[in-house]
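Chapter summary example: a protein plus EPU.
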Amino acid sequence: MDKLLVHGGRPLHGEVVISGAKNAALPEMCAALLTAEPVHLINVPRLHDVRTMRKLLDNMGVASETHGERGGISFVAHDALSPEAPYELVKTMRASVLALGPLLARFGEATVSLPGGCAIGSRPVDQHIKGLQAMGAQITVEHGYMIAKLPPGQSRLRGARISTDMITVTGTENLLMAATLAEGETVLQNAAQEPEVTDLAEMLIKMGAKIEGHGTSRISIQGVDRLHGCTHQVVADRIEAGTFLCAVAATGGDAFLRHARADHLDAVIDKLLEAGVQVTAEDGGMRVRSPGGALLKAQSFRTTEYPGFPTDMQAQFMALNVLAQGTSTVTETIFENRFMHVNELSRLGAHIAIDGREATVTGGAQLSGATVMATDLRASASLVIAGLVASGETLVDRIYHLDRGYDRMEDKLRGLGADIERLST
Ligand code: EPU
């Protein structure tokens, strides 16, 4: 199992290229299921989750081919597919559930494993099921699988007004994709407004879908008979960009994040500015300059849906609060178990107390290197940030979590001057 060895204490300087967003690429790969024509994605990040999604699509019979330098992958989902997502693949990546909506919409049937639990929380998919049922699907759960089909005599899903009980990102994406091929109009109320949802909607529009209101909480979709192929560039990963903002802020330094979109990171940038970090949008990206974590002012925040502070940035910003001056509170409102980095940060010398969904961080810690264990994707990133600042050596174990969602993170950090290497065993 690979590990990362970090020698802390080097400020980050230079330029880093931000990759395409994992959470846009995954639904966009599933959108290829909606048409028999070729779908070309550009700027697909090189990630383990992308490889898993490709395997899942391949297993159904979708042909795919990598091309060019710029993360290009083409997909062709022929008419004869096996519309099934088996447990062996779904269990390793919850986003596999994104195949359900497109399969049902195009083929009138789908068998997709229930994703089960996950380290950061229970994460049910009841809203995906409820929404598709509102569109006329018959869904039963048997032997751990969601078996979805259309009622006898019905060849398409039917448009519906759907209001999800909570805002759900992949739920919105699943229903959005399903609605593109449904008969009549679908209105999604309480829809997720994340940039990844908007990027998917823009791709679907290129494929011929009729969508309005994406980027707001009310999306309306007028179903069409068929969609066609398209070429689409995956939007830049705001969470990868935010992670590098926090890494530069913590270590001190000056870096340019090429392709990063400042307009997708307002809530995080506001907190960084209040902390004393300089962040400016520039042509083609974003610049960040920081005097170093110990000279910053700790910031309290609570995670909420977009455009609020993203839960996917909570762990990384907490690493910054550990170093900064003052006491801060961090409230996690999206997932019930997303503080697993806290115990590991404490092993490096952080002072954090947890009470339910609230963590109180006493700043000004002097971190010293230790062996720590990555527990989930963003938790891993926060440990790497802490390791970049800690004195001596930090060994981050179980970095397969990191590889799921960051495109060669250690290479990018090394490019900025960090002393970091991968140990493969
Ligand atoms: N929820 C339900 N029922 C549902 C759907 C969601 O109860 O049917 C609950 C969840 O348990 C959670 C909340 O609603 O408490 C929000 O979950 P959401 O459905 O929005 O999360 P997701 O779609 O499964 C995506 C990202 C996550 C990110 C969350 C929140 C993808 C592939 N994943 O997950 O990304 O944390 O939205 O923004 O888009 C990551 O990249 O590290 C990651 C975990």
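Key point: The radius of gyration is 22 Å.
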